[in-house]
Inverse folding.
């Protein structure tokens, strides 16, 4: 039984929460907005649908929506200011941790799903309404799914990219991996994306921050030029024969110079079975773990 007094008490609790209206307290504010949506407005909707004639329903919903709008306005101002100050070379990780805390806590790294860090990064790096796909995927292409932000932060730490490294994101989607790796490491990054609408969106977002060392190429991954690449990332952009074709392309690159491949998702166990690659941090069988593979072929 939903108690109207409990709903009112929840609203008051958020209104009086310490520091929630401080721009720095993004995490608590994000949790409060979700709570308003699902546990306050949701319960009010349930009461309305049950034909309960409770005079306070409309008043409480307006109060809850006004509170949510106030919290969202704080974030809108926050992200506008941050976008104006996010420039190549800044201590980007320090900026993020200032608002959401530690970005790669050990107890989160192998957990599925998304968290408050994704919420923060989505708000920060977005440049427009998210685009709809315009091309039909081939059978073995996997539908676009965003790489969890905590995994990208861990990726940037694990790669230890140097000035002469070139990082490729194969199946780059809306471009977050390439942009974040560049902002976190300063390395040159190149995203390869089959869907033109996603690629155009990624280019627009990178241009918003003047990330001149971030490129996005709209092409079939099997036809891209990887000659300059030293580090590659795949969040399972495809499977089956297409994945094996991609691995054969990378194997050809590894004949010329040593490369590293980082993987996340169901592609990892497949890549772990490649005889020319060695996993440096496990057996490659956990689809919720970021793995590093190093080529073992002598470069020609």
């Amino acid at each position: 039984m939903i108690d109207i007094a409990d709903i009112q008490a929840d609203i008051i609790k958020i209104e009086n929460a310490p520091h929630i209206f401080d721009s720095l307290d993004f995490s608590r504010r994000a949790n409060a907005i979700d709570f308003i949506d699902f546990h306050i407005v949701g319960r009010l909707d349930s009461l309305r649908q049950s034909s309960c004639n409770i005079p306070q329903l409309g008043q409480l919903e307006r109060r809850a929506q006004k509170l949510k709008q106030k919290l969202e306005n704080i974030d809108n101002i926050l992200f506008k200011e941050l976008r104006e100050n996010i420039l190549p070379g800044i201590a980007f990780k320090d900026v993020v941790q200032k608002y959401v805390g530690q970005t790669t806590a050990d107890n989160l790294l192998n957990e599925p799903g998304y968290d408050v860090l994704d919420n923060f990064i989505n708000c920060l790096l977005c440049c427009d309404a998210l685009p709809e796909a315009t091309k039909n995927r081939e059978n073995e292409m996997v539908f676009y799914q965003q790489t969890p932000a905590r995994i990208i932060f861990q990726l940037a730490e694990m790669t230890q990219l140097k000035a002469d490294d070139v990082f490729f994101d194969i199946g780059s989607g809306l471009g977050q991996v390439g942009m974040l790796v560049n902002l976190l490491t300063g390395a040159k990054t190149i995203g390869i994306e089959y869907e033109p609408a996603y690629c155009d969106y990624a280019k627009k977002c990178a241009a918003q921050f003047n990330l001149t060392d971030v490129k996005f190429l709209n092409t079939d991954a099997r036809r891209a030029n990887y000659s300059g690449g030293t580090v590659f990332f795949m969040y399972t952009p495809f499977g089956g024969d297409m994945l094996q074709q991609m691995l054969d392309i990378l194997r050809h690159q590894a004949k010329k110079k040593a490369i590293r491949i980082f993987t996340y998702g169901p592609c990892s166990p497949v890549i772990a079975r490649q005889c020319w690659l060695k996993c440096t941090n496990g057996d490659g069988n956990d689809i919720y773990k970021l793995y590093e593979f190093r080529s073992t072929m002598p470069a020609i």
Summary: The chain is about 45% helix and 10% strand.
